[in-house]
Amino acid sequence: MLREENEQPDVVVKDLIFACQKVGLTIMDVNDSAKDFNWKTRYANRYVLTMVQKPNISSTSLSEVLGAIGSNGINIIKIERLSTRDIASLQFTVSLPDDLSSDDFASKMVEVSKKHGADIAIQRDDLERWMRRLVVFDMDSTLIQQEVIDELAKLAGVETQVKEITEAAMRGELDFFGSLKSRVALLKGHNAEELFAKVKANLIFTPGAKKLCTCLKRLGFKTAVISGGFLPVAQEVQRYLGLDYAFANTLEVDETTGLLTGQTSGPVVTPQRKRQLLATIANVEGCEIQQTIAVGDGANDIPMLHAAGLGIAFCAKPKVQEVSRYRINQMDLSTVLFLIGISERAMERLADETPCGM
């Protein structure tokens, strides 16, 4: 409470009680109950709960989240609105009671998320959250909305055969390497430059991808695409989004004819190699693996998502969602920024800024 410097506390309390009675409010004296209260304990176990739902957080979603917070004895320290035009994202800073683990509370929030279609993430509110320096993305169905092998297959007239192989892989009849090898073999004899030129000309970027990558760059993050797809497309995605690194598979091309041989060249980007490349880039950039963020949608992204400090399953397959702690199901990649504490107002300012030297 604020009062004039020379005003007596008793007078302030009297005036406050009178004002409250006029509007039907009751003042409670908490001096006795607060006397022995341990405020240090109350502010321990701090976590940040981020809630995102487009176009607006529904009243039922918010009610369930607040109900779960209250029923579990969780103290809300602060509530911040991260979105500007609509109430699409809120950030709660909370302290959990000693007898409630963050994993247990996160499990409760997963149920709310599934029931109402809201994305809810719980992270520890510590310095580590603000020390992330590298963001790595999958490409197909993450940065772009297509699967590159499917686009190549359509152009090569082998879409049906590729689809059959993909379905066999999903049934577990083929591993990632075997599936890739079989599909690439079907492209044999086609002109590589022509195929990739057509695919690159028709890329559909995921909503929010450009905004996210622009903001990350302005904030000083290093960014990379690590794809089980193919390098010419990954390099085009890198160019358009301004990413620092691009890794993907290379299709072997006959130097004389310019035709695809039906084989790959060099190391294949398997799920394990994705994880290794994440660690390698982090090492090159001089940061710990805990200072990284990984975003992906497929089963081949799981090792990378688990290795990163913040692994986000973006509009992911059910299997990936089940084993991921953090999920985004709103079809807007810029919502990743909410999870690292960046408000929409800050995003707009970052997007509007002109980089030095330009």
Automatic annotation (TrEMBL):
Domain of life of the organism encoding this protein: Eukaryota
UniProt signal peptide: none
Name of the protein in its database record: phosphoserine phosphatase
Enzyme class: hydrolase
Family the entry assigns: Belongs to the HAD-like hydrolase superfamily. SerB family.
Keyword terms: Amino-acid biosynthesis, Hydrolase, Magnesium, Metal-binding, Serine biosynthesis
Stored NCBIfam families: HAD-SF-IB (TIGR01488), serB (TIGR00338)
Pathway(s) where this gene product acts: Amino-acid biosynthesis; L-serine biosynthesis; L-serine from 3-phospho-D-glycerate: step 3/3
Enzyme Commission designation: 3.1.3.3
Cofactor names: Mg(2+)
